[in-house]
Amino acid sequence: MLRNILFWILAVIITVAALGYQRKTGPTYPADGSFALGGKTYEYSLTRSHDIGDAPVELVIPDPNVRGALVFKRFKVSEAWTEIPMQRQGDRLTAALPHQPPAGKLEYFLRLSQGEETITVPSNEDIVIRFKGHVPVWILAPHILLITLAMLLSTRAGLEALPSTGKPRLYAYWAAGLLFVAGMIFGPLVQRFAFGALWTGIPFGWDLTDNKTLIAMIGWAVAVWALSKGRRARAWVIMAAFLLLLVFSIPHSMAGSELNYETGRIGAAGVGR
After folding, report:
1. What is the set of domains in the chain, with CATH numbers?
2. What is the pTM of this model?
3. Which of 109, 210, 237, 242 is the Cys-Cys partner for 161 at CB 3.0 to 4.6 Å?
4. Which positions ≥6 away from 205 have C-beta within 8 Å?
5. Residue 112 phi, psi (nearest 5)
6. How far apart are the first and last CA of the chain?
7. DSSP structure string for 9-63
8. How far is the C-alpha of 84 from the C-alpha of 71, rounded, in Å?
9. Which of 108, 106, 109 is nearest to 118 (CA)?
């Protein structure tokens, strides 16, 4: 009983940590930072993912003497930068990036000035934002819930398989089943609504989100096959659990769907963008 409680606690901690790391390091998480202007320090949080419509961009800068401009262009397209002035609304400077087709991307930065001082935010690189279609909650919610449960039960199965007296079979079957429903059924539906394609992984493309789901599914399919044959499958269960944690610790949406503006086709993005 004590071991069972301990393994569940460890499984929850590992799963939450992996999900938190994935979200925090992913290319859709807002770009946060700070900058100095006019002897004052300000913080910013700039969006890197947006659904339908123009994407609002804003900074909290109470000083009315600070002016700003939003500078942007289409990602990986040789074209001139577009600059639009930011409007002041109380203590905020606001502007909006124009809506793009699903998987379309813009790169942008802010140009701020006060008196003779002018800076860019961020100072070291442009922000890349990806647009996507609206995913209905009846698809997105089960996908997130089931993939979280799959990770939890996968981790629990791996821990259960560590001692020679462990019995990981039931946990393994549940983990594989939930992963299949979440990743291979609801996952493509999310992809379809967000980017207009059910599957952009192997053999049709190199979308990392789809491919890492496929790799994890293959790992668990092998583990379940070994268990069904009555073989000593503890090692396979451990490897499948570790593989799932490994691939799902890759930041979400990294090397995900990206619109090629020249061809009009959606493919996999470069890693990090």
Report:
1. 2-26+134-268 (no CATH), 31-131 (2.60.40.10)
2. 0.80
3. 237
4. 267, 268
5. -115, 145
6. 46
7. HHHHHHHHHHHHHHHHHSTTS-EEEEEEETTEEEEEEE--EE-SS-EEEEEE---
8. 7
9. 109
